[in-house]
Predict the 3D structure of the following.
Amino acid sequence: MANTKESKSGGMSLPLFLLVLIALAGIAAGVWLVYKKKADVGRNEKKYTFTMQVGDQKTLEALLEHDYTCASSAEGVVYIAPGTNLLLAKAAGEATVIAKDSVTGASETFVVTVVENPDHPGATVRHTVTTEVTTTTTELTTTETTTVPAGVVSGITLSYYSANVKVGEVHPYALVTMTPADATDKSELWTTSDDKVATVDKAGRITGVGAGKCMIRVTSVSNPFVFAEIEVNVVDPNATSSASESASSTTTATETTTASGESAADSGASSQTGTTASSGGAGQNQPKPTIEVRNGITYVNGILIVNKTYSLPANYNPGLDKNAQAAFNEMQAAAAKEKISLNICSGFRSYTTQKALYDRYCARDGKAEADRYSARPGHSEHQSGLGMDINRASSSFNGTKEAKWLAANCWKYGFIIRYPEGKESITGYMYESWHVRYLGKDLAKKVYDSGLTLEEYLGITSKYAN
């Protein structure tokens, strides 16, 4: 019997021993996995904490199994373009960026420290990443008014639209104003039409590369249909002047002049209508105008007028006229039916804004030249809320299909081309195919049919007192 008991006891001890071993092995494995996980985190710690300079862009690479979305705790510090994992360091500070797996919900956290750019201390970035962002817009296939989603940029105004740059020179920034003022994303994308002539960085700094002309464009990222352009003329100061002298000689030889010494192109003669009006004089059979000033605002035959002769008070701030806006919406929809895209690139401008623009132009090109294309503060038609620039305020707009459509059709919707070609001596401004003035449909048709400028039609002048 004793042997039997010993045999049974020995038979039970083997499984128990194995169970103990298995348990110990499990504990050891658990400890090892915890240690390994901590070790892995330690090894990967640099991937979860990193530093960027203001203006830097970085693609976030999370170690997640599926596609993931990214969110920033402080978009004023680190901005993430919608639908992307591209980060833009906008200002000094710290932001937490979370990448979340779209399938499992797992996430990874990144602490991003943004430090100042030593080349531009104290600067912040007002531009976003160079990535395409889809935005919801209304198809212009009906006569319905086109609406822009709330918070989306609908217009861009620049502090200048042309620039003369020397090879190797970095041009001063163009001030950018996006409307509406409460747009949630005013990010900008800068591009050049020819990087062999001029380049532009993400901050909008233009650098002359080689002699020639090109267009620098700033586009709204939230609404890629909205943009403004700067016509850049790059000159090489080291180049010989023989070519330009030859060109000047050729031009002079083929030019005809009037008795006043003006070139035929600027004489103010209207070959289209067969009517010739003296500078500032009334058109044929036009009665003497009735001029009335109310609260500092001039009305000629009941029409609000602002030009080089007649100004607006500095505190006159009506914004863009609602009737003008409605008329433009109607015109925009009609043009879209013919596959013509029209947008307002510059609408209302305050006295203060116009002063900043004019002063900048004078500093750059001199007062005499600036007066040809920019109004002095108080004399800008933009301040009336009735004038607007279409698509781009640049001579590159001249001759485009949009410019031709605008010239032929804008009167149907209450607008006129305010500064026609060959009428600078009368309107006071160079040809601007992009600038229209709202008059209402009846009056616009009459002015259009007359073939006259608004000054000629009303019998008024447009000349500064000094």
Notes: The chain has a mean pLDDT of 76. The chain has three domains: 46-115, 155-243, 280-458. The radius of gyration is 33 Å. The longest helix spans residues 2-43.
